[in-house]
């Protein structure tokens, strides 16, 4: 009977249901030897080749493989031979959506250079398609006028670069913007890891995250400070989960965060894991209080010395007392102490390390005595109100900190994006150092990175304060060695390079403005124009109303990107770029200092060109224009810097439009030259030296663990990289434990510093934080065009504590108006019982801009009805200039 | 002959849905990625209209903590979907994979009702020229398994929660895991007596 029942008949439908009722049960289980044809073909059209690349999203830097068929990407898989062992998250997996026929990822791509009248800014319309040469000539004409005057140490034009661009591009930006053209240049890393970089320079002597992902397997205790690792670095979180399952309750975890972040899912509260919902910005008080508990209570200063830490420390120094938790050997050998003073530290960038002399305290154990005395005020009861934590919780955390030997702390934007971020890092390092929980496998402080090439932009030198090879701009010796390396023996040029980097009279650094100041000065008219690369400040930047005004006011706005962005609505010139991941080649450095290779899988669409080629083409044309105008000296200088990079390819840059294909081809070789030049330049910089690396090695060799890519430093052509910095292996290589001049760690006695500008009051009673979410990457430029992330998180919302919601009479799904001192947004409220913020704190994602739904094209008016950054403040940390995106005072009203 | 199965360690699963996403790419669910309507289908998916997956991740909140369960097809030894199929489109391969012959399927939905795990769905968009409205399900990436490879979800899990292999081979990773965690191993809905081949290691 069943056989007679054909599919077509059934689907015709009439009486089908009734017919089915009469079916007899068929035989129980059938075994068919040859399965049907369509299973074999159920998958995508099979890829012809798999091309090595790296996911363009977070700082995990998961190695991925692009499946290519007939010149098109058909699939994406994780690379099993990389540190991620084939793992990908939903963002990486859905990259394949961007290449589907007729998808938003294909339809929306920028394919031709665009130009329009500056009067017509404000929307994505009114552009006209032009040739590369017309667009670049237009820019050159304007920029060469700007470079006749100066603002600050540089000419009043700025590039706002990106931690998503390649290491090579970031080096180019350093070489030609900071040195060659002498214009302002900073990256979106300022919003992401400026605090981490600056704080590491202060404490360790050089920048570079010292630990590796696998250290979570070695740790006994893990402290997560303001680091929503499950959402922001899901690949690393996978390792953490594995470690927790493997080690069970031998790995204790404390999460210190105002929001009950996704990582709290793996806590076992019964076994003593802790979730401490701290009040934003108050971590220093909490850290110092833990130190207080360890010294005064656990070491018995209160009990045996009636609270007199000074007498106790004397007995420790004389050897009468042997402390249980304090590592006197480590302190005596490796630690210098300083007074924590923001005003003095803020001068570091300009004046260099001599400022440390002003705040120096005694070294070693004598300095430790000062620290012990300083902590007297941080009794848990005294800081309970400030931090919002109970004294009992602080004591538990302190006990956990000194439980067993290996304690590891990691942090990300909970420290970074606050105006007292640097002090938090320094207080934390001091606690780790005095307890000897630093510089070992599984013990130390790991300031994480957010972007896929967040570290690469620092190593490339495109972030203010960093120079190629991750040199310290503030260090005279580093400036001199860079000038020497770039000058290739030409002394006249060496002097010229040095002159761009330092004032010949005062020997102070000559620095570009940092990101926030670039946009503020754009608004004031001091900076004439900005060129954004792989960047979307109209969504990602703090205080969007300020950015909005700045972009409208600017004389020239250039946007270089792969898709239309909110920022493009204010551009005069749009330059279509090739996506680095998939369409160009280059390298990325992930959060554990691993350099990985991205190979070109497919041709970019239309006339799109790789980022580096675009910048080089501009510099080439600019240099020609200067020469034609008689500015020979400037032109010669640029020509000298260009030579080793584009030698042999000059004719291609004469007519860019006619040579698109050739330039894409040349990019492979040019990137390789850039990498080897930077590798050469990086020689001798502790922890960041990769003079032993080349494209060949990255393509063919594996590291000591058998993974693709190498961890910095890679010292020679047989060296396989160092697993971590500042441990015994590091000391064996460099004969110094830390990268400071005397090889000692700089530890600071920092008081809790109040945020720079604003605090809650009766009018603005709630604290808002703006975290990243798992489903979308930054401003959704790509993930907003992928189906699954969009389906999961189509629009912004405000997460609120159930108790606060009750007080305000807000129900789940109600529309609420959130207003700060700078603007307001209207979003749906979500009474969050999973990622619950503490009472008095609310959070919303900042990924959403006024382009709204990228699938349906439904837009809002700028700066956007639900753009979180309308609310945030552009106040910043005085040392790192990292803006305070994780604290804003707001009021909430049901609408 | 190998007897394939899966062991999913729920302690390691944090509901990131990476498995759902890679499966969607690999197996054309719910979008036919090879077709000319891919873009349009992607928009329908994004709008929530196409909402079926081979690999689903169910989540529940237990004492304020999220617990997630990845749910592929259980590839039961005693599969009700095969029993009820009126046209013998559902069948079991020798290696234990439960599959559908799309040419035979009449889209009657009986298997959808029969499956206690709701592993099956009706394809709203046909994939690669198959008939319209046929049933779809996880087939343990049979196209990869036939080449000696593992399923996409097990290869792509960041925390290594999903393991795939031969349950008959005592030395395989899955057999070892089952042996080591014998007390914690559970299968879903044992009351249906379906004897699933997907095992879960519980807390």
UniProtKB/TrEMBL annotation, chain A:
Read off the InterPro entries from this record.
Answer: Asp_de-COase-like_dom_sf, MoPterin_dinucl-bd_dom, Mopterin_OxRdtase, Mopterin_OxRdtase_4Fe-4S_dom, Prok_molybdopt-oxidoreductase, TAT_signal, TAT_signal_bac_arc
Query: What is the superkingdom listed in this entry's lineage?
Result: Bacteria
Q: Name one GO cellular component term.
A: membrane
Q: Source organism lineage?
A: Bacteria, Bacillati, Bacillota, Clostridia, Thermoanaerobacterales
4Fe-4S Mo/W bis-MGD-type domain ranges (all copies): 48-103
Family annotation (SUPFAM superfamilies): ADC-like, Formate dehydrogenase/DMSO reductase, domains 1-3
Which spans are transmembrane here? none
Q: Which UniProt keywords apply?
A: 4Fe-4S, Iron, Iron-sulfur, Metal-binding, Oxidoreductase, Signal
Q: What is this protein called?
A: 4Fe-4S Mo/W bis-MGD-type domain-containing protein
The record's listing under Pfam families reads: Molybdop_Fe4S4 (PF04879), Molybdopterin (PF00384), Molydop_binding (PF01568)
One term of GO molecular function: oxidoreductase activity
Gene3D superfamilies listed in its UniProt record: 2.40.40.20, 3.40.50.740, ADC-like domains (2.20.25.90), Dimethylsulfoxide Reductase, domain 2 (3.40.228.10)
């Amino acid at each position: 009977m069943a056989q007679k029942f054909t599919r077509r008949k059934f689907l015709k439908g009439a009486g089908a249901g009734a017919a089915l009722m009469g079916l007899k049960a068929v035989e129980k289980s059938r075994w068919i030897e040859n399965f049907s044809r369509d299973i074999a073909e159920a998958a995508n059209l099979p890829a012809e080749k798999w091309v090595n690349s790296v996911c363009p999203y977070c700082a995990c830097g998961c190695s991925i493989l692009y499946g290519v068929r007939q010149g098109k990407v058909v699939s994406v898989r994780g690379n099993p031979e990389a540190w991620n062992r084939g793992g990908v998250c939903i963002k990486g997996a859905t990259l394949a959506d961007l290449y589907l026929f007729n998808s938003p990822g294909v339809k929306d791509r920028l394919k031709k250079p665009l130009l329009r009248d500056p009067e017509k800014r404000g929307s994505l319309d009114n552009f006209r398609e032009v040739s590369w040469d017309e667009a670049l000539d237009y820019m050159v004409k304007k920029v060469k006028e700007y470079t006749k005057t100066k603002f600050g140490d540089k000419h009043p034009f700025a590039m706002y670069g990106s931690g998503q661009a390649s290491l090579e591009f970031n080096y180019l930006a350093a070489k030609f913007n900071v040195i060659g053209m002498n214009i302002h240049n900073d990256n979106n890393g300022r919003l992401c890891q400026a605090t981490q970089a600056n704080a590491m320079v202060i404490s360790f002597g050089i920048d570079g995250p010292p630990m590796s992902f696998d250290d979570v397997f070695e740790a006994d205790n893990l402290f997560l400070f303001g680091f929503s690792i499950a959402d922001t670095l899901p690949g690393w979180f996978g390792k953490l989960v594995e470690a927790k399952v493997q080690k069970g309750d031998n790995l204790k975890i404390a999460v210190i965060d105002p929001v009950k972040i996704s990582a709290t899912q793996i806590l076992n509260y019964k076994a003593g894991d802790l979730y401490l919902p701290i009040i934003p910005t108050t971590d220093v008080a909490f850290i110092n209080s833990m130190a207080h508990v360890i010294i005064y209570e656990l070491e018995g200063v209160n009990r045996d010395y009636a609270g007199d830490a000074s007498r106790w420390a004397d007995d420790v120094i004389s050897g009468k007392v042997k402390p249980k938790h304090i590592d006197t050997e480590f302190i005596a050998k490796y630690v210098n102490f300083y007074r924590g003073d923001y005003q003095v530290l803020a001068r570091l960038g300009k004046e260099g390390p001599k400022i440390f002399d002003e705040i120096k305290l005694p070294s070693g154990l004598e300095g430790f005595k000062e620290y012990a005395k300083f902590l007297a005020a941080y009794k848990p009861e005294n800081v309970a109100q400030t931090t919002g934590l109970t004294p009992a919780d602080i004591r538990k955390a302190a006990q956990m900190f000194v439980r067993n030997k290996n304690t590891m702390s990691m942090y990300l934007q909970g420290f970074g994006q606050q105006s007292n971020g640097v002090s938090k890092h320094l207080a934390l390092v001091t606690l780790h150092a005095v307890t000897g929980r630093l510089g070992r496998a599984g013990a130390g402080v790991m300031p994480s990175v957010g972007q896929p090439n967040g570290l690469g932009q620092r190593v490339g030198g495109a972030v203010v304060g960093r120079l190629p090879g991750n040199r310290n701009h503030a260090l005279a010796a580093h400036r001199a060695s860079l000038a020497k390396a770039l000058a290739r023996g030409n002394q006249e040029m060496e002097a010229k390079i040095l002159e761009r980097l330092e004032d010949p009279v005062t020997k102070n650094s000559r620095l570009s403005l940092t990101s926030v100041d670039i946009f503020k000065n754009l608004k004031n008219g001091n900076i004439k124009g900005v060129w954004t690369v792989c960047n979307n400040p109209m969504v990602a930047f703090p205080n969007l109303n300020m950015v909005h005004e700045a972009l409208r006011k600017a004389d020239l706005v250039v946007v270089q990107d792969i898709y239309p962005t909110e920022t493009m609505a204010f551009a005069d010139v749009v330059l279509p770029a090739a996506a680095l991941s998939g369409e160009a080649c280059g390298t990325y450095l992930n959060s554990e200092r691993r350099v990985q290779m991205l190979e070109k899988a497919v041709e970019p669409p239309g006339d799109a060109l790789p980022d580096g080629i675009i910048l080089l083409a501009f510099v080439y044309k600019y240099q020609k224009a200067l020469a034609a105008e008689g500015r020979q000296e400037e032109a010669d200088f640029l020509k000298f810097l260009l030579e080793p990079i584009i030698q042999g390819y000059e004719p291609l840059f004469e007519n860019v439009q006619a040579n698109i294909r050739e330039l894409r081809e040349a990019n492979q070789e040019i990137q390789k030259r850039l990498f080897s030049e930077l590798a050469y330049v990086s020689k001798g910089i502790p922890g960041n030296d990769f003079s032993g690396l080349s494209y060949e090695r990255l393509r063919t060799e594996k590291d000591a663990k058998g993974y693709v890519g190498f961890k910095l430093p890679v010292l020679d052509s047989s060296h396989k990289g160092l697993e971590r910095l500042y441990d015994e292996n590091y000391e064996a290589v460099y004969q110094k434990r830390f990268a400071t001049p005397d090889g000692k760690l700089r530890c600071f006695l920092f008081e809790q510093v109040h945020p720079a500008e604003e605090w809650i009051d009766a009018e603005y009673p709630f604290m808002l934080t703006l975290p990243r979410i798992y489903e979308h990457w930054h401003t959704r430029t790509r993930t907003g065009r992928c189906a699954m992330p969009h389906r999961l998180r189509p629009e912004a919302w405000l997460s609120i504590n159930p108790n606060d919601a009750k007080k305000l009479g807000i129900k789940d799904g109600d529309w609420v108006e959130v207003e700060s001192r700078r603007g307001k947004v209207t979003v749906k409220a979500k009474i969050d019982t999973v990622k619950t913020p503490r009472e008095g704190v609310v959070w919303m994602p900042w990924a959403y801009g006024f382009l709204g739904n990228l699938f349906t094209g439904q837009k809002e008016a700028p700066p956007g009805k639900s753009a979180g950054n309308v609310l945030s403040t552009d106040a910043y940390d005085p040392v790192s200039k990292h803006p305070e995106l994780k604290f804003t005072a707001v009021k909430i009203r049901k609408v | 002959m190998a007897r394939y199965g899966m062991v999913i360690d729920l302690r390691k699963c944090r509901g990131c849905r990476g498995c759902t996403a890679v499966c969607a790419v690999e197996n054309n669910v719910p979008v036919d990625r090879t077709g000319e309507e891919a873009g349009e289908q992607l928009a329908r998916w994004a709008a929530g209209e196409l909402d079926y997956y081979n690999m689903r991740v169910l989540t529940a909140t237990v004492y304020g903590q999220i617990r997630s369960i990845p749910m592929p097809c259980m590839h039961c030894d005693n599969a009700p979907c095969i029993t009820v199929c009126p046209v013998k489109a559902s069948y079991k391969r020798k290696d234990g994979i439960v599959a559908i012959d799309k040419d035979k399927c009449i889209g009657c939905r009986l298997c959808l009702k029969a499956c206690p795990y709701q592993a099956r769905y009706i394809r709203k968009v046909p994939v690669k020229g198959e008939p319209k409205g046929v049933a779809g399900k996880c087939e343990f990436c049979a196209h990869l398994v036939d080449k000696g490879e593992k399923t996409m979800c097990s290869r792509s899990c960041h925390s290594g929660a999903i393991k795939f292999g031969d349950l008959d081979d005592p030395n395989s990773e899955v057999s070892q895991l089952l042996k080591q965690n014998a007390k914690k191993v559970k299968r879903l809905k044992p009351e249906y007596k379906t004897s699933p081949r997907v095992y879960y290691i519980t807390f």
